[in-house]
Design brief:
Strand content: 25-35%
Order of helices and strands: HHHHHHHEEEHEEEEE
Keywords: Signal
Radius of gyration: 22 Å
Oligomer: single chain
Length: 246
């Protein structure tokens, strides 16, 4: 009995040590990442001023991702980030994409703060989107920490093949990684609506055009008691906008 008790204590101690290590490791990575937010902003501005917009995008995207992540984990990060800081970061990314000749990527970044005066002004500076009859391409919806959910549409014979990749970023998701969910379905070339079913989960995809925002997919998810086969908290519903190839 004593040996069993000692073994249990050893296992519990090992679990406790692993938990403490994980906490320390997360806090260390968090603080290191948050310490770089200003560096990302400064490097992005430097590249932007030098008209190296592709390099500016990468820095500003890191700025946007970590700014929100650090705000959400402010108690542990020790760095205060305001909503305005995040808005500026998102707009920096959008402006860089606009300079790269990718107005749809610029548009979706501005839409992350669609109610702000800065974003509204920048949206008005973009030319109206070109609407194509071809539905092929990549469509995105904003997720947390500067990330995106994706729907990719391609042609195969007389059908459109549709693939969804969605994510759920928990409070620590930028470091620990997200939960994921995928599904695939198809649709006749002449159609504008597709459906996906999994157990009692039903997902409807409606292709449409917005004269100001471009081609889009309106997704409705009625999951009932099913998780649709997705990871925890992954959800497909929402509006996805078509963007250019990166």
């Amino acid at each position: 009995m004593m040996r069993t008790t000692q073994l249990c204590l050893m296992v519990m101690t090992a679990i406790g040590s692993a938990s403490t290590f994980a906490e320390d490791s997360f806090e260390q990575e968090l603080q290191q990442g948050c310490a770089k937010v200003k560096q990302y902003a400064q490097a992005g501005k430097k590249f932007y001023d030098q008209k190296q917009y592709a390099k500016a995008v990468k820095q500003f995207e890191d700025q946007a991702a970590w700014a929100q992540f650090c705000q959400m984990n402010a108690d542990e990060s020790g760095i205060q980030v305001t909503d305005r800081d995040i808005e500026i970061a998102n707009n920096n990314v959008g402006l860089s994409y606009a300079k790269l000749g990718k107005p749809q990527w610029a548009r979706v970044w501005f839409l992350r703060d669609k109610d702000s005066k800065t974003s509204q002004y920048n949206l008005k500076q973009l030319a109206k989107p070109q609407i194509s009859k071809d539905l092929q391409g990549t469509y995105v919806r904003a997720n947390d920490f500067g990330q995106w959910d994706y729907i990719k549409v391609s042609k195969k014979q007389n059908k459109y093949q549709i693939a969804f990749d969605g994510y759920y970023f928990g409070l620590r998701g930028l470091i620990y990684g997200p939960n994921m969910g995928q599904f695939e379905t198809s649709m006749p070339i002449i159609a504008k609506q597709a459906n996906y079913r999994y157990e009692d989960c039903q997902i409807k995809l409606q292709f449409a055009n917005d004269p100001n925002l471009g081609q889009k997919i309106e997704v409705e998810q009625n999951n009932g008691e099913s998780s649709c086969g997705f990871g925890h908290n992954v959800y497909a519903g929402g509006t996805f906008y078509k963007v250019e190839k990166k």
